[in-house]
Amino acid sequence: MTCILWVALAATLPLGCGDSEGTTGEEDASRKAFLRDYALAGKVVLMEFGHVGCEVSDRGLRAMMDLQRSGAIPGLIYTRVEIATDEQAVGEYYRELDPTLKIIRDPDRQIMSAFDARAIPTFVLLDRFGRVRYRGGVPTGELYEWVAVLQKETDDPGPDAPQFGKVELAGPTLLKQTALPALNVEARPLESYRDAGGLVAVVIDTQCPFAATAREEMATVAAGLAAHNVSSVLINVNEPADIVRQFYHDKNLTVPLLYDGSGQILLRWDIDSVPTVVYFGADGGIQYKGEALWAALASAVGEALGLPPGTVSFAAKGTEYG
User: Fold this and answer.
1) Rounded to two decimals, what is the model's pTM?
2) Domain boundaries 171-319, corresponding CATH code
3) Where does 25-152 sit in CATH, by number?
């Protein structure tokens, strides 16, 4: 199955795509209730939101188990939030794995929604006041230092608590070091697809309906970009080659479809949802990274190319859920 899930407006649907630290009073109350109900309040907690059957989730869980057993980070509580709905598969998986850390079921994805976890797997690091201080892929080697900082905090930093792990992305480096295969083409650097005016990469998967909207509208968007010497590619993430080939073989694609089944695009490009649009400018620098709202992309492209406002435009609208 795919490891990126659509964060939906209804909790019973597969979840949809986007990220914001802002929370409503209801969301904040849901988080506090969760921490209270599972005896996690007042503790520094590393949670992995995962799904049985997702290989990347499995690797993340095993990494947490190794950390817990080693005792390398004293005082850190490890928790897996399992969103799979198949009770038999969940039971078999955990009986065989026999984890020592806390496993919390979340088949209706209420907890996932409360903590704004929009990809599977997503790791969330909570401080002692229940504030999210990191959200993303498997935490780096800085996790020990992060936890040490959180354990020393004596006052609630509030809803605008500083976040760990936020990095500036080096576009030229990503273009040169990201080599992906296309449907019938061997892997080659993404830089080779960039035109004189830059490259727009739209990150999608086969499951998200918002990603489908972005993919279907690329015919219109790509034509508009090409008029300004900006090339386009679609990048399908977190699904193996056989699923990608089966899904796209009869699709009328107007731009190259590349794919990454390793999860590295999500981690190295700091992407936690689909669809995500990334515009690499003429010099390779990232000029836009965000939702598949084509008006916003058009403005970014026009500004980067020094064109008068309104010069770049698309008939398609796009989707704010990204």
Assistant:
1) 0.58
2) 3.40.30.10
3) 3.40.30.10
